[in-house]
Amino acid sequence: MRWRHKEFVLRPHAVPPATTLDLCLLPISLDQAELAVSYAVHALIDLADGSDWPQRLEEIGFLPGERVSVMARGLPGRDPLAVRVGHSTFALRRAEAACIQVLPWIQGEAP
């Protein structure tokens, strides 16, 4: 199915991969990430609630540059999240996943 608008041709399922030319990407929190899409950990943020979640997440492998993806969400309420980082899979609460800022994984980036 194609939709033509002036000189543009849009294909609904043809999403180009992120490239190094996409310099204006803004990080999102991991709890907002799409399922089964690869992201790179950008940063761990400290929430104002005084929790030590960023430190604990860093200790289990959520380091900047590490490849991460959300594999599944629980029902109801989308909590907890099954998250894969490196070769490990963890169950995270949405509040914990909100501490992790991610960017799209760039094609060809070293694992």
Please describe what this structure looks like.
The protein is mainly β and 111 residues long. It has one domain (24-104): Roll (SH3 type barrels), CATH 2.30.30.90. It has two helices and eight strands; from the N terminus they run ββββαβββαβ. The protein has a six-stranded antiparallel beta sheet. Strands 1-2 form a two-stranded antiparallel ribbon. A hairpin with a 7-residue loop joins β5 (67-73) and β6 (81-85).
Q: Keywords, please?
A:
single chain; mainly beta; 6-stranded antiparallel beta sheet; two-stranded antiparallel ribbon; disordered N terminus
Q: Would you report the number of β strands?
A: 8
| Discrete helix count | 2
Helix content: under 10%
What structural category arises from helix and sheet content?
Answer: mainly beta
Provide the CATH top-level class: Mainly Beta
